[in-house]
Amino acid sequence: MNSPPLSLGTLLIACFVVCHYQCQAADTDNLHDTCPTDTTQKTVFINGFPCKNPGSVSASDFKSSLLNDKGDTDDIFRSSTTLVTAAEYPGLNTLSLSVARTDLEVDGLVMPHAHPRASEMLFVSTGVVIAGFFDTNNVMFRKVLREGDVFVFPRGLLHYCLNNGFEDATVFSVLNSQNPGLASIPGAVFAPDDSESMEKLKQRLISVSRLDYERLENTTFF
């Protein structure tokens, strides 16, 4: 038995439902040319930050010097990462962007971590680094990067980088979220004073990373 043809009204409703859910799956577009963060609003809680009065927006909102200086690398990992979001850099508000600077001493390491809300594009400014990430099948992808090279860490996947050269290294990153979030293995697994376990994990990661492989399956570190 043949089904009756759909009416025009039914088709229009179906198209509306499909379009509605497709639109909801993506970030909404800006309704203004710019929306620098209004840092004076301390009692309004929204998904993001409120905008400044358009009449008070200036070029200074779109410039930041927060990544100019080297970070403090005097810790067990001999590295430092400075992440700048829309909370500190008003011009980033509503643009789905954050920026970061990472400084690594010789043998310095950024331990495996993930950003649940962002992919990360890393650019090597100085030095030689190894960058890698782990997919959900426990496969490690890693590459030696030199000045000018770029590497991408997919959203939500554990990733790391280490200094593989004979001088300090500096890398800059752009993340496609104004609040990328951070899930860190050391912070979640080890006590703050468990330096012995963190040192063992660090040395294991360094030794595996320096193997002559760009892809390594079933990698374990514990």
How would the blueprint of this fold be written?
Elements: H1 8-24, E1 79-84, E2 98-104, E3 109-114, E4 120-126, E5 129-134, E6 140-145, E7 150-153, E8 159-163, E9 169-175, E10 183-184, H2 185-189, H3 195-209, E11 215-216
Antiparallel strand pairs: 1-2, 2-9, 3-8, 3-10, 4-7, 4-9, 5-6, 5-8, 6-11
Describe the structure.
The N and C termini lie far apart (63 Å). The chain has three helices and eleven strands. By secondary structure, the chain is α+β, with helices and mostly antiparallel strands. The strands form two sheets. A six-stranded antiparallel sheet has the order 10-3-8-5-6-11. A five-stranded antiparallel sheet has the order 1-2-9-4-7, with no helix packed on it. It has helices at 8-24, 185-189, 195-209, and strands at residues 79-84, 98-104, 109-114, 120-126, 129-134, 140-145, 150-153, 159-163, 169-175, 183-184, 215-216.
Strand content: 25-35%
* Number of E strands: 11
Order of helices and strands: HEEEEEEEEEEHHE
How far the N terminus sits from the C terminus, by CA atoms, comes to 63 Å
Sheet with the most strands: spatial strand order: 10-3-8-5-6-11
Principal-axes shape call: elongated
Query: Helical percent range?
Result: 10-25%
Major β-sheet profile: 6 strands, antiparallel
Cα-atom radius of gyration: 22 Å
